[in-house]
Request: fold
Amino acid sequence: MAAPASSTSSLLLVLVILLAAALISHSSANAWPASSSGSGGGGGGLSAGFYDETCPSAQDVVRRVIQDARVADPRIPASLIRLHFHDCFVNGCDASILLDEDLPSGIHTEKRVPANDNSARGFDVVDDIKCELDKACPGVVSCADILAIAAQVSVDLVGVNLFIEHLAGGPRWRVQLGRRDATATNIPSADNLPGFTDTLEDLVAKFDAVGLDHGDLVALQGAHTFGRAQCLFTRENCTAGQPDDALENLDPVTPDVFDNNYYGSLLRGTAKLPSDQVMLSDDPYAAATTAPFVRRFAGSQKSFFRSFAASMIKMGNISPLTGMDGQIRQNCRRINTYY
Ligand code: HEM
Ligand SMILES: *[C@@H]1O[C@H](CO)[C@@H](O)[C@H](O)[C@H]1NC(C)=O
Reply:
């Protein structure tokens, strides 16, 4: 018997309540690890408030540029977090991955090593972020910090999805800042980035070399909850005559949402990359190292989010340049030529 007007208003009321519930759980249900630098990693000198005085809008600027870029290219948040990973594993989080080939200054680019060539992407968006930051606070924010902020903002943007059941949002962390930019690259180290055909022993050793343990390895690979892979890298390996660079969703269940469904695929034995599935196999080494974490994260999204946030802080702390070391690059692709 409800008149149209009152049914409209009760629908509105339900919407308002749902929205309020979403906002409350978004702000309370997320891990906010203390602003310490986390264990290991040796990130002394970084702090969450590093730009509070000199560039208070830094995070907002980064968020705005990524929001815009995502409209044309929904994959951008995934591509950006991967850049931070490939930066941090090579000489620490120092933006070495962003440098272009430049023989006069002796720079060989890390962009051409196997793990990055035709694969690492998002460099134009980093340039756009740098450009917008230089309008807001010229010469202040390092390219290495841009990658760290972009990683955090990307996860935050993708985790929030009011239209499916993920009302709680994705993992959040206080990104630690104060990194400075390198004046060199390291090709041998970039050649040694974790690879899709690496054994579990290799992956564990490569993570251990930068102070990351079994739990960090499993949590951080959970970033494969979004983004794409060329079929050449997948376990199916381009069946049915696809071209090598045909794209597949890394998480076939919820391809653009940051959640723990990735670990469910591992339990079912349907993970995309060989380097994903090795974390859960019949191999006794997997049983003794990574498998318990896979099961834990598959069973609890909350546990995954907490661990992911803590491990991202740890990864972001890998040997940063701080203080007077390095420089604040004017152009993320080139070292400054004046001193
Ligand atoms: C453990 C070792 C890892 C290996 C061997 C690995 C390997 C790969 C490979 C082969 C791809 C597909 C690239 C392409 O098709 O061009 C990929 C994509 C991706 N990786 Fe990883 N990865 C690892 C760890 C990580 C970590 C630690 C993160 C972030 C914290 C990460 C984030 C991503 C994301 C988001 C994508 C999709 C990128 C896009 O769509 O542009 N990966 N990874
Ligand atoms: C797929 O096949 C190509 C060509 O044989 C090979 O180089 C590549 O490593 C294979 N990928 C996987 C995931 O096995």
